[in-house]
Every structure is written in C-alpha cells, then in structure tokens.
C-alpha cells in the first residue's frame, strides 16, 4: 500500500469523496453533516492524501488534515468497504499525524457522528479522547468531538 498527497479534484479521488458524502447523508440530517467541499480541501492549509494498493490504480481510501491555528482537524477519512480491516485507515491517520508534527502542530482534533461506532472505537484505539466542540462547531447531539496530543516521536 502507498499513501500519497493527492488532489481531491482528481476524478477517482472525487468519487471517493462523493461516496463518503452519500454515506454521511444517509446517517445524519444536513445540519449535522460537516462535509468540507472540494474547494475547501484544495486550500493551502489542507493536506489531502489517498491510499492505493500497488495492483490497483484507483484510490481505495482518503483522508485530510486542515491546519487551523494551533491544531489540525482530521477530515474526510474514508476507506472503501472491501479494504476495511487491513490497516489502511491506520496508515492514513499516521501520515496525517506525521504531517501535523512536521509542521509543529501537536494537537489533532476531529468530529464524527454518534452512529459511526466503528470510527469512534478506531479513533479511541489511536489515543483520541473525547472533548468539547471546537472551532466553529456547536454542540450537536449527533456529533462526537475527539482530540489527541501528538508526540514528536510518532
């Protein structure tokens, strides 16, 4: 598996984002969905990556981190269903966290939904802890907010 910086405007990568949007929209009402647009994901403060297996030219997963002042917000982590449980999401998160540390950002934060129990368990396994809403987020009974203090020796 390889993970590379990529452009969310790429047709194949954009398909992943659309699939994630459809999934999120099936779980939550619009006011509880915080779906960053492609225009947001190509901004200078966003590091967007895709994962590939060597035998497949199409991306199998994606993720991003948006640097906001003194923290990074993890966004758009998604792995195609057939590739889950193979360490892909863990590799993406490691890449995103390393990017933050390399940019002297030592706090990673994220928002996810209450119905995504596997995601919540996954983030907990990586050391993320529950926290209060941050940035522009408001309290939402359908949202879970988490953060992790990143060590310089990831």
Task: Give a written overview of the molecule.
By secondary structure, the chain is α+β, with helices and mostly antiparallel strands. It has one domain: Aminopeptidase (3-Layer(aba) Sandwich). 29% of the residues lie in helices and 29% in strands. It is built from 4 helices and 7 strands; from the N terminus they run βααβββαβαββ. The chain has helices spanning 11-27, 38-41, 88-102, 117-125, and strands at residues 2-5, 46-52, 61-68, 71-79, 107-113, 129-130, 143-149. It has a 7-stranded mixed β-sheet, with helices on both faces. The radius of gyration is 15 Å and the shape is globular. The model has no long low-confidence stretch (mean pLDDT 93).
Walk me through the topology.
Layout: E1 2-5, H1 11-27, H2 38-41, E2 46-52, E3 61-68, E4 71-79, H3 88-102, E5 107-113, H4 117-125, E6 129-130, E7 143-149
Parallel strand pairs: 4-5
Antiparallel strand pairs: 1-2, 2-3, 3-4, 5-7, 6-7
SS content category: alpha+beta
- Tell me the strand order in the biggest sheet: 1-2-3-4-5-7-6
The largest sheet, given as strand count, sense and whether it forms a barrel, is: 7 strands, mixed
Q: Looking at CATH, which topology would you report?
A: Aminopeptidase
Strand content: 25-35%
Rg measurement, Å: 15 Å
Cα end-to-end separation: 20 Å
Total count of helical runs of at least 4 residues:
4
Order of helices and strands: EHHEEEHEHEE
The tally of structural domains comes to: 1
| Record field, number of beta strands | 7
Compute the average pLDDT: 93
What is the molecular shape? Answer: globular
CATH superfamily: Gcn5-related N-acetyltransferase (GNAT)
Instruction: Point out poorly predicted stretches.
Output: none
